[in-house]
Amino acid sequence: MAANSRGKMDYIKEHKIHILFEQLAGTLLADKPAQPIPFLIEQLKAIHNGNLAATKPEPTPAVVAAPEPEKPKDPYKVTLAVFGLDAAGKSTMISAVAGEVDPNLAPTVGFNPNHFQSESWDLMMFDLGGGPKFRNVWKEYYSELHGIIFVVDSADSDRFIEARDALKGILDDSRAAGKPLLIFANKQDKSTAKTAAEMETILEVKDIERHHVFGCSAIADPVDENIEKGLEWVLEEVTTSFDALSERIKMQLAEDKERRRQAMAEQAKRVEQYRKEWADKEGEKGKKEEA
After folding, report:
1. Which of 33, 132, 176, 190 could, after both became Cys, cross-link 39 (CB 3.0–4.6 A)?
2. How far is CA 187 from the centre of its chain?
3. Binding residue ranges for Mg(2+)
4. What's the CATH number for 2-48?
5. Do the Cβ atoms of 115 and 148 come closer than 8 Å?
6. How is domain 76-240 classified at the architecture level of CATH?
């Protein structure tokens, strides 16, 4: 038995049977013929006639799938609000961002949302009225903002202190503090306008982190490049800390919701107390009338 096994092994080695089988199997799997037996017969004939050498075939290279193209990232969903005194040029500045400068816009009464879309940004920009009465409502928007835009009339020196105090009121609120602050020193087309550097001093923001002051003219046609530069700056600032800002917004909105819930509960309690007192008074009144 052992001698017979050695004879078989010698035969295999002598005629390179193992290499022959490997070559035939590799060719068969590579070509995948519809009729494998006739195909193998032709391959054996070719080897026999010397057209194909019975040598160990090179391994078939593995087919590597082409990497799938990266999916485009979803645009950043960003919310900004434009603050400033009435007649500072907020609405005109926003129209410039849209590429359609309208110097004759009526003053904003209340709130106007403006939506801008690009491959990188899904931007919601709130235009908030700057009249004295509406400024008390500004704080209702702080929590949902990624960044703040403040527009000041750099040619109206009579209202510089008013503008400074309005901006300070925003930055003193914990829901707005620390978020990127873009200031547009508007109306640079006027001869009495202060420069961006001068307005930075007047508004007392030099020590505020993450702020930038751009001088601009919102009515310029074509659009003042500093408006574009300013918007690019604030959006880049938002990008660098987008996750942290988004998490902060989420927490602030939850806190606002809880505050509103508590305020409603307290109001309902006061109403219930008033009704009880009123019922007690009516009851006492009825007893006196009966007596």
Report:
1. 33
2. 30
3. 91, 108
4. 1.20.890
5. no
6. 3-Layer(aba) Sandwich (3.40)
